[in-house]
């Protein structure tokens, strides 16, 4: 199975193409949803990777897909601008299990 990246900047695309991954740069919500739907229809794609900026624009659609489909796996990565907070892992654990560490 292949992986496919939908990014909001060219730098992330270039970096992952060096690792052999295909992808596309999309900016507008409609374009992102169109590319996301095309990637879901492609049965060769097992993992769809979204940058955080892309995920934030289509969060509702991604969550809808995750509830209905088990494949492809949709994951989110930080963009080159590092949108995540410094302590995002601690916050994620605290929100997930309710334990402060």
From TrEMBL:
The keyword Ribonucleoprotein does not apply. Pfam families: ATP-synt_F. Keywords: Ion transport, Transport. Gene3D superfamilies: ATPase, V1 complex, subunit F. Coiled coil: none annotated. InterPro entries: ATPase_V1-cplx_f_g_su (IPR008218), ATPase_V1_fsu_sf (IPR036906). The keyword Cytoplasm does not apply. One of its GO terms (molecular function) is proton-transporting ATPase activity, rotational mechanism. Belongs to the V-ATPase F subunit family. This is V-type ATP synthase subunit F. The lineage of its organism: Bacteria, Bacillati, Bacillota, Tissierellia, Tissierellales.
């Amino acid at each position: 199975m292949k992986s496919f990246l939908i990014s909001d900047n060219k730098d992330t695309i270039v970096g992952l193409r060096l690792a052999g991954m295909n992808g596309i740069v999309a900016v507008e919500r409609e374009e992102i949803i169109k590319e996301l739907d095309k990637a879901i229809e492609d049965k060769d794609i097992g993992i769809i990777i979204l940058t955080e900026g892309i995920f934030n624009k289509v969060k509702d659609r991604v969550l809808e897909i995750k509830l209905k489909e088990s494949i492809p796996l949709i994951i989110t990565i930080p963009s080159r601008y590092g949108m995540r907070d410094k302590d995002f892992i601690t916050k994620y654990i605290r929100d997930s299990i309710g334990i402060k560490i």
